C-alpha cells in the first residue's frame, strides 16, 4: 500500500477494533527509513496512549472463528 492509497483509504476519525476498543486516527505518516505508510492513532480509553501501526495492517482482513472482518471498522 502506498502513502497515497493509505491516505485515501484510511480517513481521520473514530474506529472500533475487532476486539471492541475504540481508537481515533490522527494522521497517516511515513516511516522515516522505509517510507512505509503508518497510521498514527490514539486509544479512546484508559491512558489514551498514542500508537503507530503499519497502514497495511490497519486495513487488513482478520479471520476468527470462521468469520472474516476488518481489523478496524470506521464508526459512523
TrEMBL record:
<dbReference type="InterPro" id="IPR023387">
    <property type="entry name" value="DUF1653-like_dom"/>
</dbReference>
<protein>
    <recommendedName>
        <fullName>DUF1653 domain-containing protein</fullName>
    </recommendedName>
</protein>
<feature type="domain" description="DUF1653">
    <location>
        <begin position="13"/>
        <end position="74"/>
    </location>
</feature>
<dbReference type="Pfam" id="PF07866">
    <property type="entry name" value="DUF1653"/>
</dbReference>
<dbReference type="InterPro" id="IPR037135">
    <property type="entry name" value="DUF1653-like_dom_sf"/>
</dbReference>
Amino acid at each position: 500500500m502506498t502513502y497515497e492509497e493509505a491516505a485515501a483509504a484510511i480517513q481521520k476519525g473514530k474506529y472500533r477494533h475487532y476486539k471492541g476498543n475504540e481508537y481515533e486516527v490522527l494522521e497517516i505518516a511515513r516511516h522515516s527509513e522505509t517510507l512505509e505508510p503508518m497510521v498514527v492513532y490514539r486509544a479512546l480509553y484508559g491512558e489514551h496512549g498514542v500508537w503507530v501501526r503499519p497502514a497495511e495492517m490497519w486495513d487488513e482482513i482478520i479471520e476468527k472463528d470462521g468469520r472474516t472482518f476488518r481489523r478496524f471498522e470506521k464508526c459512523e
